[in-house]
Amino acid sequence: MSYSAQPGQPGAADPNAPFGYDPQGRPYSDKSKIVAGILQLFLGTLGIGRFYVGNAGVGIAQLLTCGGLGFWALIDGILFLTSNDRTDSQGRVLRG
């Protein structure tokens, strides 16, 4: 008897989700929420954390406003580190 893993199950080789799925069935990103949060905390005034996850528009806005004078960058960095629902530009959930 052969076992064939279905997409969304452990062991499945799904090209749409090379890093697997979260418990709600959403694909994981190749980006890390920890890396995004640290980049945002230390370089958020330049929008680097947003550029890292592929949100160029928000990254440019943070660059032009110096990260909302640092407040926006600080809050955004904390949210990246604590939230489990942050996504990259392709809508995939950031890995923790």
Uncertain residue ranges: 1-5
What is the beta-strand fraction?
Answer: 5-15%
Beginning-to-end CA distance, first to last residue: 36 Å
Question: Mean of residue pLDDT?
Answer: 87
Alpha carbon gyration radius:
16 Å
The biggest sheet, with number of strands, parallel, antiparallel or mixed sense and barrel status, is: 2 strands, parallel
> How are the strands of the largest sheet arranged?
1-2
Principal-axes shape call: elongated
Task: Note the total helix count.
Answer: 5
Write the layout of secondary structure elements.
Blueprint: E1 28-32, H1 33-43, H2 48-52, H3 56-64, H4 66-69, H5 71-82, E2 93-95
Parallel strand pairs: 1-2
Helix pairs in contact: 1-5
Comma- or semicolon-separated keywords:
elongated, 43% helix, mainly alpha, 96 residues, 2 strands, two-stranded parallel ribbon, 8% strand, disordered N terminus, 5 helices
Descriptive overview:
The structure is a single chain. This protein is mostly helical and 96 residues long. It is 43% helix and 8% strand. It has helices at residues 33-43, 48-52, 56-64, 66-69, 71-82, and strands at 28-32, 93-95. The protein has a two-stranded parallel sheet with strand order 1-2. Helix 1 packs antiparallel against helix 5. The longest helix is centred in the last third of the chain and has 12 residues, at 71-82. The radius of gyration is 16 Å and the shape is elongated.
Structure, briefly:
By secondary structure, this protein is mainly alpha-helical.
